[in-house]
Structures are given as C-alpha cells and as structure tokens.
Amino acid sequence: MNDEFYMQHALREAEKAYANGEVPVGAIVVIRDRIIARGHNQVEKLNDPTAHAEIIALTSAFNYLGAKYLPDATLYVTVEPCLMCTGAMYWSKLGRIVWGTDDEKNGHARITGANWPFHPKTIVEKGILADDCAALMKAFFRERR
C-alpha cells in the first residue's frame, strides 16, 4: 500500500461529498497501514462552516483512539487544507500530512506563505493524484456556474 492507494480512498470520500452537493473534499486517517477514520465535507448538511473533511476525519480518529494527538498517523486529504484545518492538524501533532491538489484560493499557503503552519515534526507530501483531485473540484464548480 502506498500514498496513491490511500489517496484513492480519500477521493471516494470526496465523491460522497460531491454526490451530496458539498464541495468535494475527502480525508482519511491511517495508522500502521490501517484506515482508522474517514471524513468528507458536510458544511451544507450540518449548516456548519467547520464541518470540513479534515476536521471530521480528525475527530473520528481522536474518538477511535481515545487520544488527542496523532503522532503515528498520516492524514490524506484531496485538497490542500485551509487555514482552519491546518490549525487543527497542527494541534493534532500528526506525523504526516498528504494532500492531492493545491488550492490557490482557499488553501493555507495563501495566508501562511512560506511560513511552516504545521507541527515541527510533521512531514508533508503533496501532489498525490493531483490531477484526479483537481478534476473532481473543477467538475463540481463547473456544474454550479
């Protein structure tokens, strides 16, 4: 199993969001090659601007483990995290974060720039299945314009 394998699972979560009329972002949390948590955007469903895929997946992982830190976990998310989700990832002390496509409009880098917004020990990988992740977002917004 590799990053592409797990990003495919995150993409399946994003497809669930898409099917429900939500911005198609999906996330999963993996520890020792096992998916322990999943999430997809539910902002519209829950009428909650904090109901992002990453937050839902992190909360599920905390509940599953009975812990507030995830130093042995990898979070896979289809789109570059926003500033809010980046903060949650920082405080989660994730071991690794992997995302698919960058988000120039709403991603954390628009605000943080070159400053490292993640926990100092967190490893970040990006661009995994970027074209697939971007295509889902583009299709979603093309339908709504």
UniProtKB/TrEMBL annotation:
Statement: the UniProt record of this protein carries the keyword Hydrolase: yes
Reactions accelerated catalytically: adenosine(34) in tRNA + H2O + H(+) = inosine(34) in tRNA + NH4(+)
Classification lineage: Bacteria, Pseudomonadati, Bacteroidota, Chitinophagia, Chitinophagales
Protein name: tRNA-specific adenosine deaminase
Cofactor note: Binds 1 zinc ion per subunit.
Family: Belongs to the cytidine and deoxycytidylate deaminase family. ADAT2 subfamily.
Quaternary structure and partners: Homodimer.
Cofactor requirement: Zn(2+)
PANTHER family documented for this protein: CYTOSINE DEAMINASE FAMILY MEMBER, TRNA-SPECIFIC ADENOSINE DEAMINASE
